[in-house]
Amino acid sequence: MEEFAVNQSNPADQPGTMVVSITGSMTIQYGAEIKSAFLEAMGSADTLLLDLSKVTEIDLVGLQFICSAHLTSIAGGKGFVVMKADNEVVAAAAYDAGFDRHVGCMQDRDHTCIWTGGDK
């Protein structure tokens, strides 16, 4: 299993955007680090790109962090994009937990919910 890491970067070609990349386990064990990275990114950027392509394990807490970050972005008028790169671990966990939906939550007026297909 890959060691946990959370990294932030500002792409030079995308001003106002913060990329948060998570490697390894996106679980309760690393909740404090994940939450801190999300809050920092939301506070310093207009758009958060969450890269989950290197996540090797995710639990319900990890899935809830994604939803919370999305709702925070909606409330703050910020962009939020999840890049899963066809990560089967994330897809299976979302399916098993019942996160796959046909319609997003009531706050998702722009239809950006990743559980309904609003991802990349």
Summarize the structure.
The chain has 120 residues and is of the alpha/beta class. It is built from three helices and four strands, in the order ββαβαβα. Strand 1 and strand 2 (17-26) form a beta hairpin.
Descriptive overview:
The model has no long low-confidence stretch (mean pLDDT 87). The protein has a single domain, classed as STAS domain (Transcription Regulator spoIIAA). The longest helix is centred in the middle third of the chain and has 16 residues. It contains 3 helices and 4 strands, in the order ββαβαβα. The chain is globular and about 35 Å long. The chain is α/β, with parallel strands linked by helices and 120 residues long.
Q: Which short descriptors sum up this protein?
A:
32% helix, globular, four-stranded mixed beta sheet, alpha/beta, Transcription Regulator spoIIAA, 120 residues
CATH class value: Alpha Beta
How would the global form be characterised? Answer: globular
User: What is the CATH topology classification name?
Assistant: Transcription Regulator spoIIAA
- The poorly predicted ranges are none
Proportion of residues in β-strands: 25-35%
Tell me the structural class.
Answer: alpha/beta
Count, helices: 3
Write the layout of secondary structure elements.
Blueprint: E1 5-9, E2 17-26, H1 31-44, E3 47-58, H2 60-75, E4 79-83, H3 88-96
Parallel strand pairs: 2-3, 3-4
Antiparallel strand pairs: 1-2
Helix pairs in contact: 1-2
